[in-house]
Amino acid sequence: MTSAPTESTKVKNRRPRQAVHFGEPLPLGAHLCRASWLCGPSVTWMMLFLVGPLLFVVAMSFAQRGDDGEIVWRFTTENYARLFGQGALGFDPVQPLILARSLGVGLLTAILCLLAGLPVAFFIAGLPHRWKGAALTLVVIPFWTNLLVRTYGWQLILAPDGWIARGLRTANWLAADGELYPGWPAVLIALVCDYLPFMILPLYTSVEKLDPALEEAAADLGASPLRAFWSVVLPQIRPGLIAGCVLVFLPASGQFVIPDLLGGAKLALLGNAVQQQFGASRDWPYGSAIAVVALLVMGAGLWLHTRVTRGRREVALP
Q: Which helix (H) or strand (E) holds 218?
């Protein structure tokens, strides 16, 4: 008669379990299989509806326009040369002026939003905690209304017979025959008001982390308020400042609805030029070249933002 196996015999005959090490790299085949299941649908969607059309626009920018507005797939760089002023009759400054005007409008809008948004960010950061949520809600309320509706609203507010124009004429700040709309004043006012939240929110996230003891220490050491702001406060809020400027500059430089409606269709930016070429002019290759240059401008802005902020992190002060 065989004796029943003891507990020590069971342990000895038991097959050892394979140890599992978390974080151990998977084999290449398993890694690709898992990545295809997780990222395959989103990558496919991006390739079909973002990368594919973008590559088509880049290819079309090197094509030619036919006599009837059709696309002639013959390689040429005339579209880019025309954009930078090189035409069949010599140098034409119209297109370089549109490019320079777009960059200037984007830069001016970012500066005005910075000057208007910095005090607002400090004001919200200094509010009691229970009021900060309401203040931030008031900042983003304009986004609850469509951009087109807000732009038509500015047409009524800034009209030549509106109360703002009449008040400025009464105060002799506007000529008797002067007007805010249509023109550059209306365009800049609308751009600043529409993109101001993009400046306030990044600035607020940086300002809220400031330590007021550092500014007080700078004042105790004899620094003036301006010197304390420049040497103590500004380095701490620089990430939010740069992020806000990029978020305002990029869309403002390519805006076309606001200049078209508030500028009286006379103030063309890159966005208006693209809309004109793909619309009435039916010159899709040239419009594609303008779109590619606009994308390069935006990419350069993002690259500059990454390069300036590289290695800089907001330090959590004790």
A: helix 212-220
What is the C-alpha to C-alpha distance for residues 149 and 139, in angstroms, rounded to an integer? 18
Peptide bond into 182 cis (omega under 30): yes
The token duo for 277 is 């070429």
Looking up tokens 């047409």 gives 155
Exposed (0-12), middle (13-18) or buried (19+): which is 299, by Cβ within 10 Å? exposed
Residue that the structure tokens 């009435």 belong to: 280
CA–CA separation, 179 vs 240, rounded Å? 36
Domains of the chain, earliest start first = 82-309 (1.10.3720.10)
Structure tokens at 127: 């509010």
* Angstrom distance (rounded) from CA 230 to CA 215: 10
Cα 268 from Cα 276, distance rounded (Å): 10
Residue 125 neighbours by CB distance under 10 Å: 18
Structure-token pair, residue 195: 């993109």
Residue whose token pair is 């209304």: 145
Nearest Cα residue to 77 out of 279, 222, 272, 293: 293
* Residue from 269, 254, 255 nearest 148 by CA: 255
* pLDDT, tens digit (0-9, with 9 covering 90-100), for 127-154: 888 898 899 999 998 888 888 889 888 9
Two tokens, residue 273: 């030029």
- Quick check: 108 pLDDT over 90? yes
